[in-house]
Design a protein that fits this description.
By secondary structure, the chain is mainly alpha-helical. Strands 2-1-3-5-4 form a five-stranded mixed beta sheet. It folds into three domains: about 70 residues; about 350 residues, no CATH class; about 100 residues, D-Maltodextrin-Binding Protein, domain 2 (3-Layer(aba) Sandwich). Strand 1, helix 22 and strand 2 form a beta-alpha-beta unit.
């Protein structure tokens, strides 16, 4: 009865806030707004108030449903052994060291966009601004909090990504135990810890490790809910779905795939007794309502065109390009075609093993991947491989399962005792882990070395030299480093400088982007300039190019 009273009280408070809270106070909670900004937020505030009422009513109804909910005893899983805890904590400590080491290295373009446009803004501005898909709301708020606590630095900006990366290792462990053996779950966590890709994204001030964490957490809650159907599991699922969606909009498609998996589960067991089989709908409904509430303020901005902004680089919209980049990234740590073929064979064995014993793992991998790929292509967006980073946990777990399947094949061929299959499988996986660990050092260093390029130019330019930064580099040097350089939007501006100055420097990055957005500038660079220095980073294609006009030396006057 106490729980029902609390539910009713919370629900009535939310309904009251939605009905009676001042509209003008909500519009100006972040200070006086300009007229155009106020008009954009007006509809968002109305949606937020409606969402409060709806959420309050939902809590009241949900509380009444729980009153009549028939619970059943759930058998608790076997307790963790002492050795298991030691291994897991050891993996987590190693992962923490690898993610905090080098966390202060140079930022790349998207991180700088996040820092300048969102992290340095107030909470109110973050909550009510969606002018770019670079805005990952929960991450922006957490990085802003990190700045308030620790001051402005690259490591403080990236701290939430590192913490989400560590949390995703725990989530993978819990999910892995649910669908596979604890050995495979621990091995998968170890590969996470020593993975180049996981470390790179854990040191990337974006919401991708958060999306990975909430995908694994939501998938774990989904599996637990389908197996045990306890109310707390679906409440947890709804919260994870909403926070994941607020971290990165891709989570919406993950939740959609989870709903389809639930419908498949309904069809599969339609002839069997399944108590409270509609309870999962409460979890999906809760996730949808909370997501709507979190996005209510900026929903008009999203539907006004920001969410559907088209891509500008044709090659980045090509699925074949995305597949090529994915394969190139997967080859990190694997040298030669033979290891690649063996790795593919192990992965296929893992798919086959889960397809026979736990097909839901294959569904959790394939359904959201297909949905995200289809919607991305249909909307004309860039198909960056990082959009599918949320599947990384499933991929690693399937690889671990495949090693165990291979172990079984080996002992049958060699006619060893069946009990030794896990030993062979573990050894095989440890070889893969070792290959992955070898590639870890290449994850460190500046993602894009803007600062190195800035220092080179400033140390080598003459007193009368003109320096231009163009394309994506312009934002970084103008807004972040505030360099005393010139900014060109057309080739004519640079040509005029070539007529008036002996030495003209030009800095650019992401050549594909520059060639698409400023083709005239790129043509001028190829004809009138030569590259005198390149500053590489860990971001593929993120090299900083320093050019000077042809026909002169490269040093100081």
């Amino acid at each position: 009865m106490v729980k029902i009273a609390v539910n009713n009280g919370v629900g009535l408070i939310l309904v009251g806030l939605g009905l009676f809270f001042s509209l003008s106070a909500m519009l100006n909670f972040n200070g006086p707004l300009q007229e155009d900004t106020q008009s954009k937020l007006f509809l968002g505030v109305l949606l937020f108030k409606v969402g409060l009422i709806f959420t309050g009513l939902m809590i009241i109804v949900f509380g009444k449903l729980l009153k009549s909910y028939s619970t059943r005893q759930v058998t608790s899983s076997k307790k963790h052994s002492r050795n298991e805890w030691i291994v897991f904590l050891g993996v987590l400590c190693a992962a923490a060291f690898l993610r905090f080491y080098g966390l202060n290295d140079g930022l790349w373009l998207d991180e700088i966009l996040t820092q300048v446009n969102y992290t340095k803004a107030s909470f109110g501005e973050i909550f009510t601004t969606y002018d770019s898909q670079n805005q990952h709301f929960l991450y922006s708020m957490l990085s802003h909090s990190s700045y308030l606590l620790f001051g402005e630095s690259a490591w403080a900006l990236r701290l939430p990504a590192a913490l989400f990366g560590l949390a995703s290792i725990w989530a993978l462990y819990e999910f892995g135990k649910e669908v596979s053996s604890r050995r495979e779950a621990l091995l998968s966590c170890a590969l996470f810890a020593f993975s180049y890709h996981h470390i790179w994204f854990s040191q990337n001030a974006r919401g991708y490790t958060g999306l990975l964490f909430f995908t694994l957490l939501g998938s774990w809650m989904l599996i637990r809910g389908l197996n045990e159907n306890q109310p707390w599991q679906w409440i947890g699922y709804g919260i994870a779905a909403a926070l994941g969606s607020y971290t990165h909009i891709t989570m919406v498609f993950v939740v959609l795939s989870h709903f389809l998996i639930y419908l498949l589960h309904l069809c599969k067991y339609r002839g069997n007794t399944w108590d409270n089989k509609w309870m999962p709908l409460a979890g999906f409904f809760l996730g949808a309502v909370l997501t709507f509430q979190l996005y209510a303020f900026i929903l008009p901005q999203m539907l006004g065109g920001t969410i559907s902004d088209g891509s500008i680089v044709a090659s980045w919209k090509n699925p074949l390009w995305a597949l090529t980049e994915f394969v190139r990234g997967a080859k990190i740590g694997l040298k030669g075609i033979v290891p690649g073929i063996i790795g593919l064979g192990i992965f296929v064995a893992g798919l086959w093993g889960f397809a026979r014993r736990k097909p839901v793992v294959i569904e959790l991998l394939m359904v959201p991947t297909v949905i995200v790929a289809f919607i991305t292509v249909a909307m004309g967006h860039h198909i960056w491989p990082r959009l599918f980073f949320f599947t990384f946990g499933f991929l690693v777990l399937i690889l671990a399962h495949g090693c165990m399947q291979f172990g079984g094949i080996i002992i049958r061929l060699l006619k060893f005792e069946r009990e030794k299959s896990t030993v062979f499988g573990t050894v095989l996986f440890l070889i893969i882990l070792f290959a992955s660990a070898i590639s870890v050092p290449s994850a460190y260093g500046p993602k894009q070395d803007y600062l190195g390029a800035l220092s080179f130019v400033e140390n080598n330019r003459g007193s009368g030299d003109i320096v231009f930064s163009v394309g994506a580099a312009r934002f970084v040097y103008e807004k972040f480093y505030k360099a005393a350089w010139k900014w060109a939007e057309s080739a004519e501006e640079i040509e005029a400088a070539l007529q008036s100055s002996k030495h003209v420097w030009l800095i650019y990055t992401l050549p594909f982007h520059l060639e698409t957005v400023y083709p005239d500038i790129m043509r001028l660079i190829k004809h009138e300039f030569r590259v005198v220095e390149k500053y590489y980073g860990t971001l593929n294609g993120g090299t900083i190019y320093i050019c000077i006009n042809k026909g002169i030396d490269d040093g100081k006057e």
